[in-house]
Amino acid sequence: MEGVLGVHGPLLQEVQMLLKLLSIQSLLFPWIDFLAGKCMLLGKTKPIMASKMVSVLFSVALLILFVFTIPHLNGGLTGLAAAIAAPLEQATVYVLLHRLEKQSDPFLLNRSTGSAL
Known about the structure:
Keywords: Membrane, Transmembrane, Transmembrane helix. By secondary structure, this protein is an all-alpha fold. Helix content is 75%, strand content 0%.
């Protein structure tokens, strides 16, 4: 890391901690994106918007809370907030999509014959 970013000492430790925390969001992003794609296939974008709003509001609330409770984490606060908000975003879009799928007709069924397309 020192050769690539040119950082060393305490800054290097902060960057490594931040990258570890942000890796949680990176691991969950493909699944969040997959669920958003399913919503778009169904023509329902409200779950996507709702999950993004929950994520943003929760992240801001966590950042405000963390600034006053654990300010010594510095840049790690952002990573910690993102690591906590990403699973919440995924859960929100999953729950809302699941409710939509229960309410609507099966996506790949032909209504006249009942057979798969």
